[in-house]
Structures are given as C-alpha cells and as structure tokens.
Design goal:
3-stranded antiparallel beta sheet, alpha+beta, single chain, 6 helices
C-alpha cells in the first residue's frame, strides 16, 4: 500500500511571488497554498500556480480624442493579483484573466477618459492626468475582482499627421517667441545696467567735484588763516620791538654800527645827523 500511495502521489513547488490553488475533481479549493513543496494526487487533483508579483501587460491601442481624432499609443498596464482572491478569480474568470477581464476594462476606461481630452493633451503635460484617470476608473471595477492596478503608462503617442505638424509648428513658434522674449529681456537688462553705470559715474563725478571744491575751500581757508596768524605774529613782534627801542638804545646801536664800520679796510666817510659822532676813517 505505501508503494501504491507513493506511485499515485506527485509533488510540486510553489515559489515565492506566487500562490497555489488545489483543484480536486474540477472543484477549486478555497484554501490558498503558499510557498513551499506541496504533495498532491495527480489522478484526482492538481495545483494551479498564479503569480502575485507585479505584471506588465503591454498592448497597442487607438485612443479617441475629444475632437474625434484617433491617437495611436503603446500602453503598459502594471498590475498584480491579490493572493487571497486567487480562488475566486480562477472560479469566476480563469487563467486567461488578462484577455477576458483586464483588456476589456482598460479599453472601456481609456475610451471614456480620452474622449474628454484633446489629442494634443495626450502629447503634453496632461498625459499624466489621463493615465491617472484611466487607472482610477479601472480600479473601481477590478479591485473587487482581486486585481490591483498599480499604474497605466501611455507610451509612444502617435498623433495624426496634420495635427503633429501643427503641434510642432506651434512649439517651434513658442520657442521662437520665448527666445525673442529672452533676448528682449537681456537687452532691457543691459540697457538698465548701462543707465545704472552712467548714473553711478555721474554720481561719482559729482561727489569728486564736491570733494575737490570743499578741499579748495579748506585750502583757501587754511592759507587765509596762516596769513592772518603770520600778520598777527609780525605785528606782535614789531610791537614788542618798538616797545624796547628807546632813544638810549638806538644811540647805543648806532655807535656799535659805526664801530663795526670803522673796522673795515676800505676808505669811507660817514656823516651822521648830529646825534652820533662823525667818523672819518682812511685806509691805512
């Protein structure tokens, strides 16, 4: 009997990042099998393994726009399956859940959301808002079915030829306008800088001239003060000298002067006014 049981048994390994569900006689077991080695009887049962890690579903789709145009796009739908909901998902949807459930829900949500936006919005900063709106609308339907929609990414947007050319022309015109505005602002700033420099030079010249004027005034005042002091000193000196020059002093100074002249070797005749002696000295 043990040998028969061994021959009638089989083993499988449920890896991390996936869950297993046992199916007996076509009935799905509600109990989820987690990571590890699992033994089952292949004659009456099997273990279905479903990944619970993030999956990337890539599709190509034509998206409608508000003005009735068709916009081509490559889309990535990032999703994962909730492990506890796998038995219900297998029972109600099956393993082909991507084609049976995810794609139809995406196409419905994308058509509903994109029809509210213009085609050019899918090629601009509005793309993020469109992606978010599609993801939220898909989540309303799919979360209760055991799926978590992590993100919806619109890639490689292909606009209609005429619209693409018009957008390119508009972008080029906007860039030219921005370039001209930049040049205008730069020229304005250069002109303002030159005006500020001229005003600065003018202020410097005014300050320099005012400084030179004040210096000249100070020099003139200093010179006038010096002359006044010198004149006062001369007057004071003369006054002091005048006060000390009596008749006796002057007479004495005259005699000394004649005496010094008499010592000269040259012949001379000096006639005084009568207050001093008369000297008649001949050279020896």
């Amino acid at each position: 009997m043990p040998l028969v049981a061994a021959l009638l048994s089989s083993c499988t390994v449920v890896r991390q990042g996936e869950v297993g569900v046992r199916r007996r006689f076509g009935q799905v077991d509600k109990q989820v099998v987690y990571a590890g080695a699992k033994v089952f009887n292949p004659l009456i049962s099997t273990i279905i393994k479903v990944p619970t890690t993030t999956q990337n579903l890539e599709i190509r789709s034509n998206l409608p726009s508000k003005e009735g145009l068709t916009v081509g796009s490559e889309i990535s739908i990032l999703y994962r399956v909730q492990g506890a909901e796998v038995p219900n998902m297998l029972e109600n949807v099956g393993l082909q859940y991507a084609d049976v459930l995810l794609l139809p829900v995406f196409r419905s949500a994308a058509a509903d959301v994109c029809a509210r936006y213009y085609a050019k919005d899918m090629h601009s900063a509005e793309r993020a808002a469109i992606e978010r709106a599609i993801r939220e609308q898909m989540s309303v339907t799919l979360e209760k079915r055991g799926f978590v929609i992590e993100n919806v990414l619109l890639k490689n947007i292909v606009l209609p030829g005429g619209l693409a050319k018009a957008i390119e022309d508009k972008l080029e015109a906007e860039q030219d306008a921005q370039r001209m505005e930049f040049l205008k602002q730069r020229e304005t700033k250069d002109a303002e800088r030159r005006v500020i420099e001229a005003e600065g030079q003018q202020r410097i010249a005014i300050v320099r001239a005012e400084g030179e004027r004040q210096a000249a005034v100070l020099r003139a005042q200093g010179q006038a003060e010096a002359m006044r002091i010198e004149a006062d000193a001369v007057r004071t000196t003369n006054r002091l000298i005048s006060q000390g020059l009596t008749k006796e002093v002057l007479r004495y100074k005259g005699i000394e002067a004649f005496r010094e002249l008499s010592k000269s070797q040259n012949t001379k005749t000096i006639i005084s006014g009568g207050d001093t002696p008369i000297l008649n000295t001949l050279a020896q």
